[in-house]
Design brief:
The protein is of the alpha/beta class. It contains 11 helices and 9 strands. It comes from Citreimonas salinaria.
Length: 274
Protein backbone atom coordinates (compact mmCIF):
# COMPACT_ATOMS: atom_id res chain seq x y z
CA UNK A 1 0.00 0.00 0.00
CA UNK A 2 1.49 3.38 -0.91
CA UNK A 3 2.90 5.16 -3.93
CA UNK A 4 2.04 4.02 -7.43
CA UNK A 5 3.78 5.03 -10.61
CA UNK A 6 2.54 8.07 -12.43
CA UNK A 7 1.01 5.84 -15.10
CA UNK A 8 -0.53 3.30 -12.69
CA UNK A 9 -4.00 3.14 -11.23
CA UNK A 10 -4.59 5.00 -7.99
CA UNK A 11 -7.25 4.06 -5.45
CA UNK A 12 -10.61 3.12 -6.98
CA UNK A 13 -13.28 5.18 -5.22
CA UNK A 14 -16.08 3.41 -7.11
CA UNK A 15 -17.89 6.72 -7.64
CA UNK A 16 -21.67 6.69 -7.62
CA UNK A 17 -24.62 9.07 -7.68
CA UNK A 18 -27.81 9.10 -5.63
CA UNK A 19 -31.07 10.09 -7.24
CA UNK A 20 -30.58 12.76 -9.87
CA UNK A 21 -27.66 14.39 -8.10
CA UNK A 22 -24.86 15.78 -10.26
CA UNK A 23 -22.45 15.18 -7.39
CA UNK A 24 -20.30 12.04 -7.45
CA UNK A 25 -20.03 10.31 -4.09
CA UNK A 26 -17.69 7.58 -2.91
CA UNK A 27 -19.11 4.11 -3.46
CA UNK A 28 -20.06 1.40 -3.59
CA UNK A 29 -23.56 2.84 -3.69
CA UNK A 30 -25.79 1.93 -0.76
CA UNK A 31 -29.49 1.12 -0.91
CA UNK A 32 -31.37 4.17 0.37
CA UNK A 33 -34.69 2.34 0.58
CA UNK A 34 -33.81 0.73 3.91
CA UNK A 35 -32.42 2.12 7.17
CA UNK A 36 -29.04 3.82 6.98
CA UNK A 37 -26.72 6.37 8.58
CA UNK A 38 -25.66 9.35 6.45
CA UNK A 39 -22.16 10.81 6.65
CA UNK A 40 -22.02 14.34 5.22
CA UNK A 41 -18.73 16.18 5.03
CA UNK A 42 -15.67 17.13 3.08
CA UNK A 43 -12.34 15.56 2.17
CA UNK A 44 -11.91 13.80 5.51
CA UNK A 45 -15.30 12.08 5.34
CA UNK A 46 -14.70 11.13 1.70
CA UNK A 47 -11.40 9.54 2.73
CA UNK A 48 -9.12 10.82 -0.01
CA UNK A 49 -6.20 8.38 -0.55
CA UNK A 50 -7.52 6.08 2.22
CA UNK A 51 -8.63 2.55 1.21
CA UNK A 52 -11.19 2.17 4.02
CA UNK A 53 -12.68 5.47 5.29
CA UNK A 54 -14.33 5.71 8.69
CA UNK A 55 -17.94 5.37 7.41
CA UNK A 56 -17.01 1.92 6.06
CA UNK A 57 -15.34 0.97 9.35
CA UNK A 58 -18.44 2.01 11.26
CA UNK A 59 -20.70 0.05 8.92
CA UNK A 60 -18.78 -3.11 9.77
CA UNK A 61 -19.19 -2.36 13.48
CA UNK A 62 -22.87 -1.42 13.72
CA UNK A 63 -24.29 -3.60 10.95
CA UNK A 64 -26.28 -0.77 9.39
CA UNK A 65 -25.68 0.73 5.96
CA UNK A 66 -23.45 3.81 6.15
CA UNK A 67 -23.80 6.18 3.20
CA UNK A 68 -20.65 8.18 2.50
CA UNK A 69 -21.76 11.61 1.28
CA UNK A 70 -18.32 13.13 1.74
CA UNK A 71 -17.13 15.31 -1.13
CA UNK A 72 -13.57 16.53 -1.57
CA UNK A 73 -13.27 20.19 -0.49
CA UNK A 74 -17.01 20.47 0.16
CA UNK A 75 -18.56 23.26 2.17
CA UNK A 76 -21.95 22.99 3.88
CA UNK A 77 -23.66 24.75 0.99
CA UNK A 78 -23.19 21.70 -1.24
CA UNK A 79 -25.55 19.64 0.91
CA UNK A 80 -28.12 22.40 1.15
CA UNK A 81 -28.16 23.04 -2.59
CA UNK A 82 -28.11 19.45 -3.87
CA UNK A 83 -31.66 18.00 -3.60
CA UNK A 84 -30.51 14.37 -3.58
CA UNK A 85 -27.90 14.93 -0.87
CA UNK A 86 -30.40 16.89 1.21
CA UNK A 87 -32.98 14.12 0.81
CA UNK A 88 -30.41 11.49 1.82
CA UNK A 89 -29.76 13.36 5.06
CA UNK A 90 -33.47 13.90 5.68
CA UNK A 91 -34.30 10.19 5.32
CA UNK A 92 -31.36 8.86 7.37
CA UNK A 93 -31.90 7.25 10.78
CA UNK A 94 -28.99 9.38 12.00
CA UNK A 95 -26.45 11.72 10.41
CA UNK A 96 -22.78 12.31 11.14
CA UNK A 97 -22.02 15.85 10.01
CA UNK A 98 -18.37 16.79 9.67
CA UNK A 99 -17.50 20.35 10.59
CA UNK A 100 -16.22 21.57 7.25
CA UNK A 101 -14.26 24.79 6.84
CA UNK A 102 -15.97 28.14 6.35
CA UNK A 103 -13.91 29.25 3.34
CA UNK A 104 -15.60 27.07 0.70
CA UNK A 105 -19.09 28.53 0.58
CA UNK A 106 -20.92 31.18 -1.39
CA UNK A 107 -21.47 34.29 0.71
CA UNK A 108 -22.05 38.03 0.40
CA UNK A 109 -18.46 38.59 -0.77
CA UNK A 110 -17.81 35.83 -3.31
CA UNK A 111 -19.28 32.80 -5.07
CA UNK A 112 -17.90 29.27 -5.28
CA UNK A 113 -18.50 26.42 -7.73
CA UNK A 114 -21.68 24.53 -6.74
CA UNK A 115 -19.96 21.12 -6.70
CA UNK A 116 -16.25 21.93 -6.39
CA UNK A 117 -16.59 24.31 -3.50
CA UNK A 118 -12.90 25.19 -3.24
CA UNK A 119 -13.11 26.82 -6.70
CA UNK A 120 -13.49 30.59 -6.55
CA UNK A 121 -15.90 31.82 -9.23
CA UNK A 122 -16.37 35.56 -8.78
CA UNK A 123 -16.13 38.43 -6.33
CA UNK A 124 -19.21 40.45 -5.46
CA UNK A 125 -19.35 44.20 -6.01
CA UNK A 126 -19.00 44.59 -2.25
CA UNK A 127 -15.70 42.69 -2.20
CA UNK A 128 -14.34 44.55 -5.23
CA UNK A 129 -15.14 47.83 -3.48
CA UNK A 130 -13.56 46.61 -0.26
CA UNK A 131 -10.34 45.57 -2.02
CA UNK A 132 -10.03 47.84 -5.10
CA UNK A 133 -6.32 47.09 -5.43
CA UNK A 134 -6.94 43.36 -5.98
CA UNK A 135 -7.39 41.78 -9.43
CA UNK A 136 -9.78 38.94 -8.62
CA UNK A 137 -9.41 37.39 -12.07
CA UNK A 138 -6.05 36.06 -10.87
CA UNK A 139 -7.65 33.66 -8.39
CA UNK A 140 -9.03 30.20 -8.99
CA UNK A 141 -9.20 28.84 -5.43
CA UNK A 142 -10.74 30.25 -2.26
CA UNK A 143 -7.72 29.61 -0.03
CA UNK A 144 -5.35 31.46 -2.36
CA UNK A 145 -7.74 34.39 -2.65
CA UNK A 146 -8.40 34.69 1.10
CA UNK A 147 -4.71 34.44 1.93
CA UNK A 148 -4.05 37.33 -0.46
CA UNK A 149 -6.79 39.45 1.12
CA UNK A 150 -5.42 38.88 4.61
CA UNK A 151 -1.91 39.78 3.44
CA UNK A 152 -3.07 43.03 1.82
CA UNK A 153 -5.19 44.20 4.75
CA UNK A 154 -5.83 42.16 7.91
CA UNK A 155 -8.29 44.84 9.03
CA UNK A 156 -10.45 44.65 5.91
CA UNK A 157 -10.09 40.87 5.83
CA UNK A 158 -11.85 40.69 9.20
CA UNK A 159 -14.98 42.04 7.54
CA UNK A 160 -14.91 39.15 5.08
CA UNK A 161 -14.09 36.71 7.87
CA UNK A 162 -17.08 37.86 9.92
CA UNK A 163 -19.42 37.25 6.99
CA UNK A 164 -17.92 33.83 6.24
CA UNK A 165 -18.32 32.71 9.83
CA UNK A 166 -21.88 34.00 10.03
CA UNK A 167 -22.82 32.28 6.76
CA UNK A 168 -21.18 29.04 7.91
CA UNK A 169 -23.21 29.00 11.13
CA UNK A 170 -26.41 29.63 9.20
CA UNK A 171 -25.67 26.82 6.73
CA UNK A 172 -24.69 24.30 9.39
CA UNK A 173 -27.76 25.17 11.47
CA UNK A 174 -29.98 24.61 8.44
CA UNK A 175 -28.31 21.26 7.77
CA UNK A 176 -28.96 20.09 11.32
CA UNK A 177 -32.57 21.23 11.09
CA UNK A 178 -33.02 19.45 7.75
CA UNK A 179 -31.92 16.07 9.12
CA UNK A 180 -34.70 13.61 9.82
CA UNK A 181 -32.81 11.91 12.65
CA UNK A 182 -30.33 12.90 15.37
CA UNK A 183 -27.16 14.65 14.20
CA UNK A 184 -23.69 13.94 15.54
CA UNK A 185 -21.16 16.67 14.79
CA UNK A 186 -17.65 15.48 13.96
CA UNK A 187 -14.66 17.75 14.29
CA UNK A 188 -11.14 16.85 13.21
CA UNK A 189 -9.22 19.41 15.26
CA UNK A 190 -5.63 20.49 14.62
CA UNK A 191 -5.22 21.93 18.10
CA UNK A 192 -6.35 25.05 19.88
CA UNK A 193 -9.01 27.16 18.21
CA UNK A 194 -7.63 29.89 15.95
CA UNK A 195 -7.62 33.48 16.99
CA UNK A 196 -9.25 36.23 14.98
CA UNK A 197 -7.07 35.53 11.94
CA UNK A 198 -3.92 33.77 13.23
CA UNK A 199 -3.37 30.75 10.96
CA UNK A 200 -7.15 30.43 10.74
CA UNK A 201 -6.97 29.11 7.19
CA UNK A 202 -4.21 26.64 8.05
CA UNK A 203 -6.17 24.97 10.84
CA UNK A 204 -9.06 22.56 10.63
CA UNK A 205 -11.87 23.29 10.32
CA UNK A 206 -10.73 26.38 8.40
CA UNK A 207 -11.88 29.72 9.87
CA UNK A 208 -14.06 27.95 12.48
CA UNK A 209 -13.39 28.99 16.07
CA UNK A 210 -14.37 27.58 19.47
CA UNK A 211 -17.45 29.74 20.11
CA UNK A 212 -18.86 28.76 16.70
CA UNK A 213 -18.44 25.09 17.55
CA UNK A 214 -20.01 25.54 20.99
CA UNK A 215 -23.09 27.29 19.62
CA UNK A 216 -23.60 24.64 16.97
CA UNK A 217 -23.08 21.76 19.39
CA UNK A 218 -26.10 22.92 21.40
CA UNK A 219 -28.28 22.12 18.38
CA UNK A 220 -26.94 18.60 17.79
CA UNK A 221 -27.28 15.24 19.53
CA UNK A 222 -23.55 15.09 20.26
CA UNK A 223 -20.18 16.56 19.35
CA UNK A 224 -17.29 14.18 18.72
CA UNK A 225 -13.74 15.55 18.61
CA UNK A 226 -11.01 13.54 16.92
CA UNK A 227 -7.35 14.52 17.05
CA UNK A 228 -6.22 15.55 13.59
CA UNK A 229 -3.22 13.37 12.79
CA UNK A 230 -2.41 14.69 9.33
CA UNK A 231 0.91 16.22 10.45
CA UNK A 232 2.15 12.87 11.74
CA UNK A 233 0.57 10.62 9.15
CA UNK A 234 2.74 11.79 6.22
CA UNK A 235 1.84 9.32 3.45
CA UNK A 236 1.80 6.10 5.46
CA UNK A 237 -1.08 3.82 4.49
CA UNK A 238 -2.32 6.10 1.72
CA UNK A 239 -2.72 5.05 -1.90
CA UNK A 240 -1.71 7.73 -4.38
CA UNK A 241 0.15 8.37 -7.60
CA UNK A 242 3.74 9.58 -7.53
CA UNK A 243 2.75 13.15 -8.38
CA UNK A 244 0.17 13.23 -5.54
CA UNK A 245 2.63 13.00 -2.65
CA UNK A 246 2.16 16.61 -1.54
CA UNK A 247 -1.62 16.31 -1.61
CA UNK A 248 -1.51 12.99 0.25
CA UNK A 249 0.55 14.53 3.05
CA UNK A 250 -2.25 17.02 3.67
CA UNK A 251 -4.92 14.34 4.11
CA UNK A 252 -5.84 12.18 7.05
CA UNK A 253 -4.48 8.65 7.02
CA UNK A 254 -5.83 5.27 8.14
CA UNK A 255 -4.96 5.87 11.81
CA UNK A 256 -7.10 8.99 11.98
CA UNK A 257 -9.98 7.19 10.27
CA UNK A 258 -9.73 4.34 12.77
CA UNK A 259 -9.82 6.83 15.65
CA UNK A 260 -12.84 8.55 14.15
CA UNK A 261 -14.69 5.26 13.81
CA UNK A 262 -13.89 4.28 17.40
CA UNK A 263 -15.04 7.67 18.70
CA UNK A 264 -18.29 7.67 16.71
CA UNK A 265 -19.60 4.14 17.31
CA UNK A 266 -20.80 4.80 20.87
CA UNK A 267 -22.64 8.08 20.16
CA UNK A 268 -24.14 6.58 17.00
CA UNK A 269 -25.52 3.59 18.86
CA UNK A 270 -27.04 5.93 21.43
CA UNK A 271 -28.56 8.09 18.70
CA UNK A 272 -30.03 5.09 16.88
CA UNK A 273 -31.53 3.78 20.12
CA UNK A 274 -33.63 6.91 20.60
Amino acid sequence: MGVMGSGGSALDYDFCRYGESRVRFRGPARDLDGDYVAFAGGTDTFGLFVPVPFPDLIEEEIGLACVNLGVVNAGPGLFLNDPAARASVREAKATVLQMMGAQNLTNAHYSVHPRRNDRFLRASDALVSLFPEIDFTEFHYTRHMLSALEYVSPHRFRMVLHDLRSTWEQHMTRLIAAAGGPVILLRFATGESPGETDDALARDPGLVDGPMVARLAQKAFALVDVEDLRDRDTTWGKVHRAHEVAAARECLGPEAHERAAEALVGPLRAALAR
